[in-house]
Each structure stands twice: as structure tokens, then as C-alpha cells.
Design brief:
single chain
């Protein structure tokens, strides 16, 4: 169903812009799948979370993590069902860990410090973490997203220091840790993903 909707939109775009290349078609089609596939996925995740009694924490988690995730990137699972299950583990995991994790102030500040160091390291090495189907080729865009990744990471953890509610503060901390892991090379290997920009550079070298 989602693929048919994407094909319909892509065909409309091709009529308006007949000069779209085959490569651009593939990128646009994949982007449409991500955007349109996100809508039913989030309805399912939010719906289940409200039924299980932690819906508002789920909403907060999604809003809290999405700015950092949007600029730093991360792996994508290759099927819609896999994506839903992966997102459930990602978001529900953050919420459940945050609900049961109790830290005193010293422990909280230590965890924030470790999260910051780890996140800065991951961003410096891997952000923006793109995929083969949607590579970020522009050096200017890559530089901008890397800088924004640093900013969003630091800002999210800074807010976690201020927030007094234990669960909400934990969500901000654990969320940044999980997101930082999602852009790592280990996460990409485990999910059978490749960095799009790296693959693009390899193709250029092979063509020389």
C-alpha cells in the first residue's frame, strides 16, 4: 500500500519534472517511503503505548530525541515491519529504562558526563550517519548536520540537568545514549546497513 502511494506521488513529480534522473528517482522514492511509512508506524507505536499506560512518556521521548536524530542520522531497517519493531524497541526501551532507573544527583551528573563524552565521540566519527539509499553527498550539508548534531546533543543533555522529574530527565539522557549508539559502525553492521557517503566515495574511486 505504502509503495503504491509512493509510486503515485513519484509519477506525478516526474510529469512535473521530466528531467529527473534514474538515480534521483530512487532517492526520492526511498525518501517518500520513509516519510509516508513513518505516519502509520507512529500511530501504531503511540496507540500501543497509550494502551499500556505510558503514552505521554512515549510522546515526550519522541519529541525529545527527534531533533538529535534528525541531524545525526542513524541506521534504517529494511522492511516496514522491521522498522516498526525496531522503533518499538528503541522508544519503548528508552521509556522503560527511564521509568525504573533511579539516580541520585551525583550519579545523574556522572551519567550525563559519560553520555556527553560518548556522544561527542560518536558524532565526531560518524555523524551525519546516512544510508546507501539516501546518502548525504554535499560536503556543506554534512558539515552543517555535524555541527547541529553537536548542538542538539549538548542541548538535550543540558536540559536533562535542569529537568527535576526523574523519569523525564532519564529519558533525555538514555535517549541521547541510544541515539548515539544508532549511528555507530557496530550498529550499522548488526543491522546490515552501510554509510551512504562512504559507499559513494568508493564508487567514485572505482570509476577513476
Amino acid at each position: 500500500m505504502i509503495e503504491k502511494i509512493c509510486e503515485f506521488i513519484l509519477n506525478k513529480m516526474k510529469k512535473e519534472m521530466p528531467d529527473i534522473t534514474k538515480e534521483k528517482e530512487e532517492v526520492i522514492f526511498y525518501g517518500l517511503q520513509l516519510i509516508i511509512g513513518e505516519i502509520p508506524k507512529m500511530f501504531i507505536l503511540f496507540g500501543i503505548s497509550f494502551l499500556l499506560g505510558f503514552g505521554w512518556y512515549m510522546v515526550f521521548t519522541y519529541i525529545a530525541i527527534i531533533p538529535y536524530r534528525a541531524v545525526s542520522g542513524g541506521f534504517h531497517l529494511h522492511t516496514h515491519i522491521g522498522c516498526i519493531l525496531g522503533s518499538a524497541v528503541f522508544y519503548y526501551g528508552v521509556v522503560l529504562i527511564s521509568k525504573f532507573l533511579v539516580l541520585d544527583n551525583l550519579q545523574k551528573y556522572i551519567l550525563i558526563g559519560l553520555s556527553l563524552i560518548f556522544g561527542l565521540l560518536m558524532v565526531s566519527m560518524y555523524a551525519p550517519a546516512d544510508t546507501e539509499n539516501l546518502p548525504i553527498i554535499s560536503k556543506k550539508e554534512r558539515k552543517t548536520k555535524k555541527i547541529l548534531s553537536y548542538i542538539m546533543l549538548i542541548l538535550t543533555l543540558a536540559i536533562s540537568v535542569i529537568v527535576e522529574n526523574n523519569i523525564l530527565s532519564n529519558i533525555l539522557i538514555i535517549g541521547t545514549i541510544v541515539q548515539s549508539i544508532s549511528i555507530s559502525k557496530i550498529a550499522y553492521k548488526l543491522t546490515n546497513n552501510k554509510y551512504g557517503y562512504e559507499e559513494y566515495k568508493k564508487q567514485l574511486q572505482n570509476n577513476i
